[in-house]
Design goal:
Elements: H1 7-12, H2 48-51, E1 61-64, H3 70-81, E2 85-90, H4 93-101, E3 107-111, H5 117-130, E4 136-139, E5 151-152, E6 155-156, H6 157-172, H7 174-179, E7 184-188, H8 214-235, E8 242-247, H9 261-270, H10 278-281, H11 283-290, E9 301-303, E10 306-307, H12 317-331
Parallel strand pairs: 1-2, 1-4, 2-3, 4-7, 7-8, 8-9
Antiparallel strand pairs: 5-6, 9-10
């Protein structure tokens, strides 16, 4: 008969959970911040409602991907609460409609399947047809830690969904963001970008077939999100459009649905000791998308509602430029920015 696991043993076993314990910001170590970027009063415990409390977003339009659950849903809810018109995307029409109809304010559902470039193109075309200028484009949706290799068009699924789908979506809507005058693009990255391969992006292994590891491939996709934001910022310099990457924190959302059952059980049991609430998890992306203090601030990485220096890989301009070129090739269209 198996002996019961004590609480001490249970907590000790969390050392085996790298996929849950994404490197967090804070602690006793000094925080490295980029010079010249405003540091505000909000922090790890701030919520999306708190960081937007003084704002009236009436007349503004936001697009939020993955708005049917988790951080995307909370982001949509809060931005709509502050008066913005929010276009909330989900993988199906039913999910998008249900999410949008369940929040107060002005929302519009849209279908976006990031693993299907035809769906991405259709969603882009629909938003363009609406004629709306986009003040906030928040690329929030994503997948994580697929236990076995899955591919889309021969590309490892996490890289395709998290990066390539959003690359096609965001670049397809650039003119609508530029039309807002001072539009903001927010890419959800993660401190898990530090799990990326030593090469940063394995351009010779985008299929994922060589030594597939769920966390390493997730890290590669999150590194790609950050590099994409920084290359966007470089290309959009002087246009009034800003692009930044954010780490939302460690939160118990549907993102972890591919973890093994025992990891999910442990997260439910002790996650409260290190995880943020969904309300706090959505704060950084809402802050970066709306804060007047960040007007014109572009090309940075934020966590806990403040700027933070990411890994050296994420600051590699040559790597970002190569990723852009490869992403154009894989999505099938050159991007003029």
């Amino acid at each position: 008969m198996t002996e019961p696991i004590t609480r001490r043993q249970l907590i000790g076993r969390t050392a085996l959970l790298p996929a849950l314990a994404i490197p967090a910001c804070g602690g006793d170590e000094p925080v490295a911040r980029p010079p010249g970027v405003p540091v505000g009063s909000f922090g790890a415990d701030s919520t999306a409602e708190q960081v937007t409390a003084s704002l009236d977003l009436s007349g503004q339009t936001a697009v939020v991907t993955g708005a049917n659950s988790g951080l995307g849903y909370e982001t949509m809810r809060v931005l709509a609460l502050r008066g913005a018109h929010v276009i909330g995307t989900a993988r199906t029409a039913a999910k998008a409609a249900a999410a949008c109809s369940s929040v107060a304010g002005n929302t519009t559902p849209a279908v976006l399947e990031l693993s299907d470039l035809a769906s991405v193109a259709a969603c882009v075309a629909g938003i363009r047809q609406s004629g709306a200028a986009i003040d906030m484009l928040i690329c929030n949706a994503g997948i994580m830690a697929l236990p076995e290799l899955q591919q889309v068009n021969g590309i490892e699924r996490q890289f395709f969904v998290n990066h390539l789908g959003h690359f096609a979506f965001a670049t397809g809507l650039i003119e609508q963001v530029r039309a807002a005058g001072s539009g903001r693009i927010v890419m959800l990255s993660s401190s898990g970008h530090q799990w990326a391969p030593e090469a940063g992006i394995e351009f010779d292994n985008l299929s994922g077939e060589r030594d597939y590891d769920p966390n390493r491939m997730y890290g590669q996709s999150k590194l790609a999100n950050g590099l994409f934001a920084f290359e966007l910022a470089r290309r959009l310099a002087g246009t009034g459009v800003t692009a930044n990457a954010v780490h939302p924190g460690v939160i118990m959302t549907n993102l972890g649905r591919h973890f093994s059952e025992w990891k999910q059980v442990l997260a439910r049991l002790i996650g409260w000791t290190f995880m943020k609430s969904v309300e706090a998890g959505a704060a950084t992306q809402c802050y970066v998308a709306t804060s007047p203090a960040l007007a014109g601030v572009s090309g940075y990485y934020f966590a806990d509602c403040n700027p933070l220096l990411p890994s050296a890989q994420m600051q590699d301009a040559a790597l970002a430029a190569k990723l852009w070129a490869v992403s154009e090739e894989l999505t099938g269209e050159p991007v003029s920015i």
